[in-house]
Design brief:
Elements: E1 7-13, E2 17-26, E3 29-39, H1 54-71, E4 78-83, H2 85-89, H3 93-103, E5 108-110, H4 113-125, E6 134-139, E7 144-150, E8 153-160, H5 164-171, H6 179-194, E9 207-211, H7 213-226, E10 231-232, H8 233-246, H9 265-278, E11 283-287, H10 291-299, H11 305-319, H12 324-345, H13 351-359, H14 372-382, H15 390-401, H16 409-413, H17 417-435, E12 447-452, E13 456-461, H18 469-483, E14 488-492
Parallel strand pairs: 1-4, 4-5, 6-9, 9-11, 13-14
Antiparallel strand pairs: 1-2, 2-3, 6-7, 7-8, 10-11, 12-13
GO biological process, one term: polyphosphate catabolic process
Keywords: Hydrolase
InterPro entries: ATPase_NBD, GppA/Ppx_hydrolase, Ppx_GppA_C, Ppx_GppA_N, PyroPPase_GppA_Ppx
Length: about 500
């Protein structure tokens, strides 16, 4: 890679717009090569039952096909694709994800609301100087993220169910801009902001920032009327009255605002006014950074990204009082097994996932020692885990849930073939790592060698068979479990 520039591609699949950013690493920093935005309005295709329409899916796939043309000729690009609110709630999102996979063969991370908020703050932190205490709002198409942070570190993350596309559908769908429509939208938004935790109402911050399209459109409208884009409550109210006087989105005359964005301005403005009147905010500035910049910089490993997931894992280990000494032994064993099979099994990119599974494998033991793997899987699957995309989080839960006893064959068989194969191979490694340290043996059972065959895994141990007869029985039971998923486990002894 030293002679070829590293290219990074971030795709942000928002509820209103899809964004593409292409960059390269230049002398240890990021150089943006291309930015592109397409108005897809994915959230506009959600019905009352959260079913995404075929038309909306087609719009999204068509956009991805065009994005592909921008970077398909780059040499070995590193690509990260992130989806937010609409695909988070769509009950038929698999239809979109499967179609997208055919167009762009890269995994799509459907991030949680908290993870979306963290990435937004990360994007802002990488693109401007932040104060000691910051409040950030990002009004998206389907959700609004609100974050408190100190310098580059987010401290409180919230995601609210209000967005410019969803509120446009609910309150301004016919294009009419009336006082009654605004009042209804404000009332609904007020309830969302009222649900924030008490930290958000302290007023203890130095800088208030807004990011993404809706905030930008509001700032652009204010610039036209006032000569600068500083946002205050008085200016927001005056903009609201101007919109009401126009009466319909077709009558909006704002030269600075994108004509495609203008119809969503009333909905975004209602959310912003509610933000100002519910929280002790006096003014707000626009921030150029957003989720896609957070994705891009973390993809490139610039900043503190390498520590975010480890920090999350360490925090959970501490919260659930994990035996770190034992967890470390399981981790070291798992890494020994991993190093022997990573290349032949195509697992090189999953090293950290296996490490995290080893460290957290007993996270559910305080609930039940007999079924701690099941409780652990539930905790992982349902926790907010900053730094983890939904797919990686679910894979981690899958590993922990299948680390011991019977395999969950029903759920494994429901996975598509590549994900199933990946899961089974990682499960085999975590199961063996746990088994080799069963009973908290002081020094564990030592591995002589590990290798793969066409059908499975070959494990050679340093101990003579007669000295570990009980463990041999455990291995024989494990052999049967692995056979259920067509993995042939073979073992030998000194």
């Amino acid at each position: 890679m030293s002679e070829v520039a590293k290219h990074f591609v971030a795709v942000d699949m928002g509820s209103n717009s899809f964004h593409l950013v292409i960059a390269r690493e230049q002398d240890g920093s990021i150089q943006i090569l291309h930015k592109e935005k397409q108005l897809v309005q994915l959230a506009d295709g959600l019905d009352d039952n959260n079913i995404l329409s075929d038309v909306a899916i087609s719009r999204g796939i068509a956009c991805l096909q065009e994005f592909k043309q921008r970077f398909s000729s780059l040499p070995l690009p590193q690509v990260r694709m992130v989806a937010t609110y609409t695909l988070r709630v769509a009950k038929n999102r698999e239809a979109f994800l499967e179609a997208a996979q055919k167009v762009l063969p890269y995994p799509i991370e459907v991030v949680s609301g908290h993870e979306e908020a963290r990435l937004i703050y990360s994007g802002i932190a990488h693109t401007q100087v932040l104060a000691a205490r910051n409040l950030v709002i990002d009004i998206g198409g389907g959700s609004t993220e609100v974050v408190l942070g100190s310098r580059s570190r987010a401290s409180s993350l919230s995601s609210l169910r209000c967005g410019c596309v969803s509120y446009n559908q609910r309150f301004f769908k016919d294009g009419v801009i009336s006082a009654a429509a605004f009042n209804a939208a404000l009332s609904a938004a007020d309830k969302q902001f009222a649900s924030l935790s008490k930290e958000y109402f302290s007023g203890d911050w130095d800088l208030t920032l807004g990011s993404s399209g809706s905030v930008k459109a509001i700032c652009e409208a204010l610039l036209q009327f006032y000569g600068d884009d500083t946002v205050t409550m008085a200016r927001l109210k005056q903009l609201k009255q101007q919109l009401i006087s126009w009466g319909h989105v077709n009558n909006i005359v704002l030269e600075n605002v994108d004509s495609k964005r203008a119809p969503l301005l009333p909905a975004g403005l209602a959310i912003m006014i509610s933000f100002f009147r519910r929280l002790p905010v006096t003014s707000l500035e626009f921030a150029n950074g957003a989720l896609r910049e957070g994705v891009l910089y973390e993809l490139a490993g610039i900043g503190t990204f390498s520590d975010i997931r480890q920090r999350t894992v360490d925090s959970m280990a501490q919260l659930y009082h994990i035996d770190r000494q034992h967890a470390e032994k399981v981790r070291l064993t798992a890494m020994t097994l991993f190093d022997g099979v990573a290349d032949s099994w195509g697992l090189v990119d999953q090293r950290h996932t296996l490490e995290y599974a080893a460290i957290l494998h007993e996270i559910g033991i305080h609930i039940s020692s007999r079924a701690h793997h099941k409780h652990g899987a539930y905790i992982i699957a349902n926790s907010d885990m900053p730094g983890f995309g939904e797919q990686q989080q679910q894979l981690l839960a899958r590993l922990i849930g299948n680390q011991r006893k019977k395999l969950d064959l029903e759920r494994l068989t429901q996975l598509d073939e590549p994900e199933k194969r990946l899961s089974i191979r990682l499960i085999a490694l975590i199961r063996l790592a746990v088994l080799l340290n069963l009973g908290r043996i002081a020094s564990g059972i030592h591995i002589s060698s590990v290798s793969t065959s066409e059908q499975g895994l070959n494990l050679a141990l340093k101990e003579p068979k007669h000295r570990i007869s009980l463990f041999v029985k455990d291995l024989q039971r494990e052999q049967k479990q692995m056979a259920n998923v067509a993995l042939d486990l073979q073992f030998s002894f000194a």
